[in-house]
């Protein structure tokens, strides 16, 4: 069984996402956080129900709460869910460009 999402696990996930997948976090903010004008974003925390981001739009920093489509069971579920969300966001982004 994978690790539950504790504060320590949240910090580890956020650090990894912020350091290695900043582009994905911006996509989360744009697609799921209703901030299509976001130019940057940072993941602040994650729990079983959602994630907290801060999105940069021009000179404003806006806090965003994104709810997951299901309660996460553990850290492994978080990993798979975040991957699926970025795939969905990329797919939506391509559809919007093609219109």
Automatic annotation (TrEMBL):
<dbReference type="Pfam" id="PF10615">
    <property type="entry name" value="DUF2470"/>
</dbReference>
<feature type="domain" description="DUF2470">
    <location>
        <begin position="10"/>
        <end position="85"/>
    </location>
</feature>
<dbReference type="InterPro" id="IPR019595">
    <property type="entry name" value="DUF2470"/>
</dbReference>
<dbReference type="InterPro" id="IPR037119">
    <property type="entry name" value="Haem_oxidase_HugZ-like_sf"/>
</dbReference>
<protein>
    <submittedName>
        <fullName>DUF2470 domain-containing protein</fullName>
    </submittedName>
</protein>
């Amino acid at each position: 069984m994978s690790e539950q999402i504790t504060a320590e696990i949240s910090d580890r996930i956020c650090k990894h996402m912020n350091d290695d997948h900043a582009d994905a976090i911006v996509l989360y903010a744009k697609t799921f956080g209703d901030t299509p004008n976001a130019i940057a974003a940072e993941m602040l925390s994650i729990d079983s129900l959602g994630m907290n981001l801060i999105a940069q739009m021009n000179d404003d920093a806006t806090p965003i709460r994104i709810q997951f489509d299901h309660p996460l069971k553990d850290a492994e579920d978080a990993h798979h869910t975040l991957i699926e969300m970025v795939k969905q966001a990329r797919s939506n982004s391509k559809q919007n460009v093609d219109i």
